[in-house]
Write a structure and sequence with these properties.
170 residues, mainly beta, 2 domains, five-stranded mixed beta sheet, three-stranded mixed beta sheet, 1 helix, 11 strands
């Protein structure tokens, strides 16, 4: 009995989980997180994607700097030879390492997409936008992140209008 208590105490003192890379988010000048109406924040070091982001559910080793994160797979013992250990729920192997994803709901699934105008070319312009309850959507990025009064959603095919709003096509 005492051995199990000692082991549980040791494990709880030394077994710490890796921080979630996608929980490192953009903040305003006062340090408050940029969030949408449901509290979803904008990850600084995870690539923003749609709802079909591949599940990774494992740790990665990341070197973080002002330009982003360069991540790789830990060694067979789970150690990082380069960088610090982080957890990624969504991610995939890519040339040169691992990319972690932050999935957002689809703008089309939210009913905010329109039909492609007749004769208009369909070009892929994937982006994340903040869509207000009235359906007006504006693109967001880390440099111009805003305190979204609506919801952050992802669009796979869309355009930015001259007035700065965006439209997403079905």
């Amino acid at each position: 009995m005492q051995l199990s208590i000692i082991l549980s105490t040791l494990l709880s003192n030394f077994a710490t989980g890796a921080p979630d890379l996608c929980n490192i988010v953009y903040t305003d000048a006062a340090g408050s997180r940029y969030t949408d109406s449901v509290g979803q924040a904008l990850a600084r070091y995870c690539k923003w994607s749609g709802p079909d982001a591949p599940v990774w559910d494992a740790n990665v080793c990341c070197q973080i700097d002002q330009d982003g994160a360069t991540c790789s797979v830990p060694d067979t013992n789970g150690r990082c030879r380069v960088g610090d250990r982080y957890f990624c729920e969504y991610g995939a192997r890519v040339a040169g390492g691992v990319v972690c994803y932050q999935p957002f709901p689809s703008m089309c699934d939210a009913g905010l997409c329109v039909e492609l105008p007749v004769g208009a070319p369909l070009t892929q312009a994937s982006f994340v936008a903040c869509c207000s309850p009235g359906g007006v959507c504006q693109p967001v990025n880390g440099e111009t992140a805003l305190d979204c009064q609506g919801d952050y959603v992802q669009c796979s095919y869309g355009i930015q209008n001259e007035d700065g709003t965006v439209e997403c096509y079905q």
